[in-house]
Design a protein that fits this description.
There is one protein chain. The chain is built from six helices and five strands, in the order βββββαααααα. It is α+β, with helices and mostly antiparallel strands. A hairpin with a 2-residue loop joins strand 4 and strand 5. Helix 3 runs antiparallel to helix 4 and helix 4 packs parallel to helix 6. The termini are far apart.
């Protein structure tokens, strides 16, 4: 019996050690949503997959669907957002967004638009930003809007239609307060 292999991009959102040398990975994939995949012997010193499968890394990965779940085939590291962050605040933004991704993105369903947004947002958050707290709130609210937890129509028009790469230009205390209110409301009503 042959198994199908799926090759896709993914962001490594978390890891869990299993047995002596195995590890499970929580992957947010471009074409399959959030899923767990197991890699055998990845914790060994001589493992070729060891360095590619680190938290906060965007990878091109081949996954094999077996009887007991997903298995990792080959892996190619494309970018580590945590390592590329310019300072401590940027690393904090990356970690915060990935934690939110782990909390709210559920199920093995294709979320291509969400994946593309998260990829761009992580790239922007690794850069030096003058208005980091505003940008963090902006990205989190728009991520929750993609998932249906926030109605963007409740925000002023500039906050609804601005691209994440140019969102920093809108930074103001009033806009940030509006974003924080929407964020808190979404988190309270999500039951997650």
């Amino acid at each position: 019996m042959s198994y199908s292999t799926y090759t896709t991009e993914a962001i490594v959102c978390g890891t869990r050690d299993r047995n002596t040398t195995d590890r499970s990975f929580l992957l947010f994939t471009q074409s399959g949503g959030m899923l767990y995949a197991e890699a055998r012997a990845v914790r060994r010193e001589n493992s070729k997959q060891r360095h590619a499968l680190q938290d906060f890394t965007r990878v091109r990965i081949s996954l094999i669907r077996g009887k007991s779940g997903w298995r990792v085939g080959s892996v190619e590291a494309l970018e580590n957002y945590y390592a590329n962050a310019v300072d401590r605040e940027a690393r904090g933004s990356v970690v915060g967004l990935v934690k939110m991704l782990r909390r709210f993105a559920r199920g093995e369903e294709a979320m291509t638009e969400v994946y593309e947004f998260i990829k761009v947002a992580l790239a922007v958050l690794t850069q030096s930003q003058a208005s980091r707290t505003f940008l963090d709130a902006y990205v989190q609210v728009h991520f929750l809007a993609y998932l249906g937890y926030v109605a963007l129509g409740m925000l002023p028009a500039p906050l609804q239609h601005t691209n994440v790469t140019s969102a920093g230009a809108l930074a103001s205390k009033d806009y940030e307060a509006l974003l924080r209110i929407q964020l808190e409301s979404a988190v309270v009503h999500s039951h997650l």
